Amino acid sequence: MKNLITSLLIALLSSTVSFAAETVKLEKADIDLSNKQALERGAGHYVTYCMGCHSIKYIRYLRLSRDFDIPEADILKEVAPIGAGIYDKMLNAMNAHDAKKWFGIEPPDLSLVARSRGADWIKTYLKSFYTDSSKPMGANNVVFPDVGMPNMLWQLQGEQHPVYKMENQKQVIEHLTNDGSGKLSAEQFDDFVDDLVNFLVYASEPAQVERQEMGKYVLFFILMFTVIAYLLKKEYWKDIH
Ligand code: HEC
């Protein structure tokens, strides 16, 4: 009986927690791991805008070259930071101690973030920063209140401001407005974020790209096998009829 009550309580609690998290509707990320150009673009955005603070410690530039079918020289020129070698890992430029001093928290390694948070959450997160001068970084985030990360993409997206409404006598954010000062249009910015999230999904399990390719061969083999089996069956039954 006690167990039953505990599990009921847990079920009740977890449902209220997920309900609270669902109040922000997540945007759907456009993930396509077979689009190698998109993956290369995403890797480039990541190196330019994120790698100052975050690492993806299991991936070397060499792996990008192999997985994306892009020559090593091009990966070094277009994706890796200046001075990086093809065998280098995608490590951040900052040491953990400084990071903690500046941000109050160490920027987490992003290797597995696409699995722990999900692609849609990351997309929504990257698009949901807004100006908040009461915060040390000058920014806050709708899906990650009091976030310790500055808004790295404001120059591309433009500055966002919250519009509030009252809900149960509490002020909550209804939506964000954009001041239109971004270098990219809303659509271009959406594509930019999709490429970045696509790359993070790849990074969370680089073997997915290989496996998807292998899947094509497996399907081809099964198809061939079916044809052969059919022909064999016809051949065998010929004499019996
Ligand atoms: C100036 C340093 C800095 C840069 C650059 C930066 N971040 Fe962050 N990021 C942080 C810090 C610090 C946190 C931890 C925030 C917290 O826990 O309050 C964080 C948290 C995150 C998280 C949430 C991780 C989690 O599960 O809690 C994601 C996702 C993320 N960053 C993605 C990115 C992406 C993508 C970029 C590039 C567009 C980027 N970050 C650029 C400092 C940075």
Can you describe this structure in just a few lines?
The chain is built from ten helices and six strands, in the order H-H-E-H-H-E-H-H-H-E-E-H-E-E-H-H. It has 241 residues and is of the alpha+beta class.
Task: Explain this structure.
Helix content is 54%, strand content 12%. The chain has 241 residues and is of the alpha+beta class. The protein folds into 2 domains: 25-205, Orthogonal Bundle (Cytochrome Bc1 Complex, Chain D, domain 2); 209-241. The protein has a two-stranded antiparallel ribbon with strand order 1-2. Residues 14-22 have low confidence and may be disordered. Heme C (HEC) is lined by residues 49-50, 52-54, 103, 105, 107-108, 110, 113, 116-117, 122, 125-126, 147-150, 152-153, 196.
Total domain count: 2
**Estimated share of beta-strand residues:** 5-15%
What is the strand arrangement across the widest sheet? 1-2
From N to C, what is the helix and strand string? HHEHHEHHHEEHEEHH
The fold-level CATH name of the largest domain is: Cytochrome Bc1 Complex, Chain D, domain 2
| Number of DSSP strand runs | 6
Structural class: alpha+beta
Bound small molecules, by name, code or SMILES, are:
heme C
Reported CATH architecture of the largest domain: Orthogonal Bundle
CATH class descriptor of the largest domain: Mainly Alpha
Shape: extended
Calculate Rg over CA atoms: 24 Å
Secondary-structure map:
Blueprint: H1 2-22, H2 36-49, E1 56-60, H3 61-68, H4 72-78, E2 89-90, H5 96-103, H6 113-117, H7 119-127, E3 129-131, E4 139-141, H8 154-157, E5 160-167, E6 170-178, H9 186-204, H10 207-240
Antiparallel strand pairs: 1-2, 3-4, 5-6
Helix pairs in contact: 2-9, 3-4, 7-9
Heme C (HEC) binds next to helix 6 and helix 7.
